[in-house]
Amino acid sequence: MSPAGAAMRLSVLAGLAVAWQLAALVADDPISLPAFTEVVARVWSTWAADPTAWSNAIGPSLARLLAGWSMAVVAGVVIGTILGLSATARDYLGPTISFLRAIPPPALLPLFIVLLGIGDGMKAAVIGFGAVWPILLNTADGVASVDPLQRDTARAYRIGFRDELIRIVLPAAAPRIFAGLRISLSIAVILMVISEMIATVDGVGFALVQAQRSFRTLDVWAAIVVLGIIGFSLNAALGVVEGRALRWHRGAMRTEA
Is pTM beyond 0.90 here? Predict the structure, then answer.
């Protein structure tokens, strides 16, 4: 990203912060809408400057999030590739997948608690179940839309199925796979918070709901900002990986243009 582009994005964030500060001054209701500066100060004192915040909240939340999302990535790419390669698999598994992805993941929390208990495994399972569908569907669509001429050429040169999959099919489907990864990462953050609001004693979601139950509005806003920072940071990291992995794709698009 160019310095001008980075400055433009930062200016938008700065504008939102100024608008928040002005809205708080106009509303003059620090209980419902605290000032932006007060929230930033609370984020620093409660989260950034407190060494226990990582061990009691941010660390456990990130561990659950990454565990659940990693399971979703593996399952989504593997099953999606199978569906993309096989029309028969799509015909047989399509209705089941449509039914399962229509179930709201929070509705499965009681069932997962019964089956897996209230530990981190349950939370990772909820995150994985909800985050897998964008990856699976985008992978299946990307694999199925690979140019048949490319695969026919690989077969003509007697390239094995494994090499064809790794060197032709998955790279061609990579743009859609990464689109699914971005969507699923946002879903994973949401489900991380929801799962930590029930039957847990740590995590950012737990801190958020405890602040809400204690009517500590400033701490609620601070926890929301921390969640935004976590989501933004993870999305930025994924964007870096995507940029490097799809560098060839963007070069090809510019060449075609």
Answer: no
